[in-house]
Design a protein that fits this description.
This protein is an alpha/beta fold. Helix content is about 40%, strand content about 10%.
């Protein structure tokens, strides 16, 4: 593991913070997977189980005024940036107390008060949104960093290339995070293109790009933290990171999918063995770990109870938040 960067916090403090976030996200999604077959959750769910290290490592070095934009696999990002857990679960239940009043569901989480500027079910669309926000930040001379999260499949969309070119041309204060889990739904990266290194595409737009191997939350925190510090000190952006990771469950839904034949359990084995939740958990004292788990479990139970007890939207909500051209 990489060394902890010199900071006011001790290594133990950092491990504890990271573990709390990793455990929180994992347990939230495990509970979503448990509840999903009951039909109480009213939208499809794209779970981040296995991929938590990316969102946690990045968001741990961000400030409240920094903003993030995500893809439809956005639970981990939403929670890592401080999104309201109660509102998230209520949104999945389709309840009016949800973060989008029950109208967006799992793929459209937003909590602008905590810098979560929204996710989208349409691949690559929020990349352009993030670039536009970063342009505004630069024009307004604000001390904020923008981070755009997307999957490897998004790098094959036109919006990705247009956005990368504009961000580089305008030297924007943005960090691009590609969560490369090797698959666009059921198709492996090397079935879609000859080269496996997505960083090459970023470098073609004359921006600094780095691949981070191993699903390593500490290395992600360290390398992205350096980029954030560079942007805050006035160094022109953008930065690009290809974070290698792996989802443990199916593309959409709460189950495993190895029986479909497009990937094997043997391929997943090394990733599961190097599970970031377990890896970081081993670095903190068992008593502290149990205390963290107990606190998070209680909050998660409360959030699901809140969602259960909340009301569905009234019919009049069909006609609110609707814009006419």
């Amino acid at each position: 593991m990489p060394a902890i960067s010199p900071m006011s916090e001790t290594a133990s403090d950092i491990y504890s913070k990271l573990y709390r976030q990793l455990y929180r996200i994992r347990r939230v999604e495990e509970e979503i997977a448990r509840v999903y077959p009951t039909n109480k959750i009213k939208s499809p769910v794209h779970l981040s189980i296995g991929q938590e290290a990316v969102a946690v490592g990045v968001c741990e070095v961000l400030r409240p005024e920094d903003v993030v934009f995500g893809s439809y696999r956005c639970h981990a990002l939403y929670l890592a940036k401080g999104g309201d857990l109660r509102k998230m679960i209520a949104e999945l239940y389709g309840k009016v107390s949800g973060c989008a009043k029950g109208k967006g569901g799992s793929m459209h989480l937003i909590d602008s008060a905590h810098g979560v500027m929204g996710a989208s079910a349409v691949v690559a669309t929020t990349i352009a949104n993030a670039v536009g926000y970063a342009y505004a930040v630069k024009l307004q001379r604000r001390d904020a960093v923008v981070v755009s999260f997307f999957g490897d499949g998004a790098t094959e969309e036109g919006a990705f290339h247009e956005s990368m070119n504009f961000a580089s041309l305008k030297a924007l204060p943005i960090i691009f995070i590609c969560e490369n889990n090797l698959y666009a739904i059921h198709t492996h990266l090397l079935q879609r293109r000859k080269s496996s290194n997505i960083c090459e595409r970023a470098r073609a737009y004359d921006m600094r790009a780095e691949r981070i191997e191993g699903n390593d939350v500490l290395r992600i925190r360290d390398r992205v933290g350096s980029a954030v510090n560079s942007l805050r000190s006035g160094e022109p952006g953008p930065f690009f990171f290809e974070c290698m990771t792996y989802r443990f469950l199916e593309h959409v839904g709460p189950n495993e999918d190895f029986h479909l034949g497009y990937r094997s359990r043997e391929e997943a084995e090394p990733w599961v063995k190097n599970d970031p939740v377990t890896t970081i958990g081993k670095l903190i004292h068992s008593e502290l770990r149990r205390r963290i788990e107990s606190q998070e479990d209680a909050e998660i139970l409360d959030a699901f109870a809140f969602a259960e007890e909340s009301s569905f939207p009234d019919e009049c909500e069909l006609y609110t938040d609707v814009f006419e051209a």
